[in-house]
């Protein structure tokens, strides 16, 4: 009976630790998503809170900028639907053009 109580206490403690870890991770993730990035070439001065100092202007993430540093104002992912046969033809063409492909027709 004492062993059952010990198991209950141990798993309760582990569950509380896991939930606290989950909540802490969610808070850190939400705080990081609000963080801005410093421009290239400028060192990111950080104040006591871990965020860049306010003397630098807010710059979006580098993946949202084009080669000249301007903000991209278009969809980053455009998907079009194709049928199964077209997808299979494109995959076959990629496979046949790959460097490691050995044609099975010659065998």
Automatic annotation (TrEMBL):
Membrane spanning residue stretches: 6-29
InterPro entries: Phage_Syn9_Gp224
Statement: the UniProt record of this protein carries the keyword Membrane: yes
Keyword entries, A-Z: Membrane, Transmembrane, Transmembrane helix
Name of protein: DUF2973 domain-containing protein
Organism: Crinalium epipsammum PCC 9333
